[in-house]
Design brief:
The complex is a heterodimer of chains A (about 325) and B (about 190).
Chain A: H1 13-30, E1 44-49, H2 55-66, E2 70-75, H3 87-96, E3 101-106, H4 111-116, E4 122-128, H5 134-148, E5 155-159, H6 166-177, E6 181-185, E7 201-203, H7 206-209, E8 215-218, H8 234-241, H9 245-248, E9 256-258, H10 271-274, H11 281-300, H12 320-325
Parallel strand pairs in A: 1-2, 1-3, 3-4, 5-6, 5-8, 6-7, 8-9
Helix pairs in contact in A: 1-5, 1-11, 2-11, 5-6, 5-11
Chain B: H1 3-20, E1 27-32, H2 36-51, E2 57-60, E3 91-99, H3 103-113, E4 120-128, E5 140-144, E6 152-156, H4 158-161, E7 165-169, E8 186-187
Parallel strand pairs in B: 1-2, 1-3, 3-4, 4-5
Antiparallel strand pairs in B: 6-7, 7-8
The chains are: A alpha/beta (about 325), B alpha/beta (about 190).
């Protein structure tokens, strides 16, 4: 991961497996009476959110707190940003205060990458513009693997406003990397023209895709990012691409319905479909904490110097070297 | 130690645990991953055989409680923790393969009290090799093995390694990583 998590392209398939396996242990921590371990005691994690967020910010905050790190939440309103402070000066200030990790959400694609040039700590991308949202993709992978037992060969449709969705991009890249078959479904205006280069299929007919799926992943229609009219009306969109009760019935038994939230009930997903047992939307949220704990632990749990042994040497079997160092 | 010595040690420790606790009632075993959890399962089976009643057994991963996180280059790999019973009011016997500096046990004590407040915590180890860095001692010891600090003690178990053995590797005579026949290590 190279000290940061900016994009799914930063992580190999092998690293994804390690992130998900480690998250497994953190999910167990989440079931305990005391849902906290001292792994990152004394570390400081800053949540730097230039865009509104409920679940991602709270999820990162909980993840860091359950690792015993100190968490500082920073949002643009009520901070020096509203006085006109630039991203660079904000970053340098946080750096001067000793932040070990900065979790950033920004409306400009590439802002997290730019941040890495100014700060020494780890940068985690919590969503940048229409670029990527890698932690969402990883928690979705975790949920799919947990429920369906594998990622390779899974048939996943990502339905809706792919053009504006950083979730769709990260998730497509991650699923393709893990050997899943991805189909993007939506009106031609909302499918990015370069989509075929991602290694995915494209379809404009949800009904043709549904019967062959393991996972139906619904995207939120991001009206705040749409600068022009991409479809005639919300009602028409809902009729053509929304997951109605009837359409959900076309899914094979055992197939999952997923959504990154927040949902527009009645637009991309019918209210009663979101509450079906195969809809694992709340599970995604719960798993998100464990996956973000895993990422923070893997990024901050080492000294950062790559001088020592590889991961394998301190790994599953307690090798002599590990005995010699004590624990 | 070879297969039969390991077996005899486990049998003896099982008896000692029963004797010390006046039976196996109120006793649970928690093994420290990796290897300690396998040993704990064997001890539990042995105690169950002697006493005719099953003893709850769990596995504990101490990675998140280590005192060297951030000192090592990479975050240590994590194992499974599985304690699906309440430890409040029980006597917990912690089980590990090798007792060395005592730092693993310190971490395990921290981890364990996050699960509840046991009546007592006892410690059982297959090998005590000395060189403690903390005021910690074992209640039940399979074998005391005098070692030099720079030597490596390896416990192999059937469940993970295919055979039971305790080996002491001398870094001066056998280079770690090489696998020449005959330098497999002295049997402890």
């Amino acid at each position: 991961m190279n000290g940061h998590l900016l994009s799914i392209h930063d992580v190999s398939a092998e690293e994804i497996v390690r992130i998900l396996d480690t998250a497994e242990s953190f999910r167990e921590v989440g079931t305990r009476v005391i849902k906290k371990v001292p792994a990152l005691r004394g570390r400081t994690v800053v949540n730097l959110f230039y865009e509104n967020s409920t679940r991602t910010r709270i999820s990162f905050e909980l993840a860091a707190k359950r690792l015993s790190a100190d968490v500082i939440n920073f949002s643009t309103s009520g901070s020096s940003v509203s006085k006109g402070e630039s991203l660079k000066d904000t970053a340098l200030t946080l750096q001067a205060m000793g932040a070990d990790a900065i979790v950033i959400r920004h409306s400009s694609s590439g802002a997290p990458f730019t941040l890495t040039r100014w700060v020494k700590g780890s940068v985690l991308n919590a969503g940048d513009g229409t670029h990527e949202h890698p932690t969402q993709a990883l928690l979705d992978l975790y949920t799919m693997r947990d429920r369906l037992g594998r990622l390779e060969g899974l048939r996943v449709a990502i339905v809706g406003d792919v053009l504006h969705s950083r979730v769709a991009r990260s998730l497509s890249f991650a699923l393709v990397k893990m050997g899943a078959e991805v189909t993007l479904v939506g009106p031609p205006t909302l499918i990015p023209p370069d989509a075929p280069a991602w290694g995915v299929q494209v379809s404009h007919h949800i009904g043709a895709v549904l019967p062959k799926l393991d996972v139906c992943y619904m995207l939120r229609v991001q009206r705040e990012r749409q600068r022009q009219q991409y479809f005639p009306s919300v009602r028409e969109y809902a009729r053509l691409f929304g997951l109605s009760r009837e359409r959900a019935g076309m899914l094979p038994d055992g197939a999952l319905v997923m959504h990154p939230g927040p949902m527009n009930r009645g637009v991309e997903i019918d209210s009663d479909v979101a509450d079906l047992p195969q809809a694992v939307i709340e599970e995604q949220v719960t798993n998100g904490i464990a996956v973000r704990m895993s990422l923070l632990y893997l990024l901050l749990g080492g000294s950062g110097s790559q001088a020592g042994g590889s991961a394998d040497e301190v790994g599953a079997v307690r090798l002599p070297e590990e005995v010699a160092t004590g624990v | 130690m070879d297969e039969s010595e390991v077996r005899r040690s486990i049998t003896r420790i099982a008896h000692e645990i029963i004797e010390r606790n006046k039976g196996a009632e109120g006793v649970v075993l928690v093994g420290i991953a990796a290897r300690g959890d396998d040993l704990a399962r064997r001890l539990a089976a042995e105690i169950g055989r002697i006493e005719g009643r099953a003893v709850p057994v769990g596995a504990l991963d101490i990675t998140f409680y280590r005192d060297d996180i951030g000192i090592r280059a990479e975050a240590p790999e994590v194992h499974e923790t599985r304690i699906d019973f309440d430890i409040n009011g029980w006597t917990v016997v912690l089980v590990d393969d090798v007792l060395f500096t005592g730092r693993t046990i310190r971490s395990a004590l921290d981890a364990l009290v996050d699960f509840g407040r046991p009546t007592a915590i006892q410690l059982a180890v297959l090998v005590d090799r000395g060189h403690r860095e903390l005021p910690i001692r074992a209640d039940f010891v399979g074998k005391n093995v005098p070692t030099r600090r720079d030597e490596d003690v390896r416990v192999a178990l059937r469940e993970v390694d295919g055979e039971d053995a305790v080996l002491v590797d001398d870094p001066l005579t056998s280079e770690p990583g090489t696998n020449r026949p005959g330098t497999e290590g002295m049997r402890a």
